[in-house]
Amino acid sequence: MPQSLSKLYVHLVFSTKRRADTIPKSHLAEVHAYIAEIFNNHGCPAVQVGGTTNHVHILFLLGKQTNLADIVRKVKSSSSRWINEVYGNPFHHFDWQDGYGAFSVGYRHVDAVMAYIKGQEEHHRKATFQDEFRRVCELYNVPLDERYAWD
């Protein structure tokens, strides 16, 4: 085949350092838009970005020339640097927690994942980030080692 084709949807989840509520609610839309821009600029179109004051969910298409770990590293480092420059305060340095969860999404489930990401605020009135992440890992049959999951 003389051409390379791919359409790999990824549902990515990562949290703030110690899952602290360090993204002001009033700035969530701007932070999410900036994260989407980073993905788009690196050839990985963002489909949906959302989350709460302590974590983010991104549904994106993994680019044909892109390594998952590299794009996650770029997004986390660029966005944390930007958040510190724009919203920094002398008493707090913003950081994302080490690690992430990345899960493949079949084309037929894209709309459901988009709705799930859009509904994060409502969803987290009933569930903590930890409970949600456990559920997502169970859904995808990904073993979660609790000793390392919440540092």
What can you tell me about this protein's structure?
This protein is of the alpha+beta class and 151 residues long. It has a single domain, classed as Alpha-Beta Plaits. Helices cover 41% and strands 19% of the residues. The chain has helices at 28-41, 68-87, 110-118, 120-123, 129-139, 146-149; strands at residues 8-15, 46-52, 55-62, 101-105. The protein has a 4-stranded antiparallel β-sheet with strand order 2-3-1-4, sandwiched between helices. Strand 2 and strand 3 (55-62) form a beta hairpin. It is globular and about 55 Å long. The mean pLDDT is 90.
Helix/strand/pairing category = alpha+beta
CATH class: Alpha Beta
For the record, the CATH architecture stands as 2-Layer Sandwich
> Outline, from the CA principal axes?
globular
Radius of gyration, rounded?
A: 15 Å
Count of distinct strands: 4
Mean pLDDT: 90
Q: Which strand order does the major sheet show?
A: 2-3-1-4
Order of H and E elements: EHEEHEHHHH
- First CA to last CA: what distance? 46 Å
Report the biggest beta sheet as strand number plus sense, adding barrel if it closes.
Answer: 4 strands, antiparallel
What's the CATH superfamily, by name? Transposase IS200-like
Percent strand equals 15-25%
Summarize the structure.
The chain is an alpha+beta fold and 151 residues long.
Main attributes?
Alpha-Beta Plaits; 4-stranded antiparallel sheet; alpha+beta; 4 strands; single chain; 151 residues
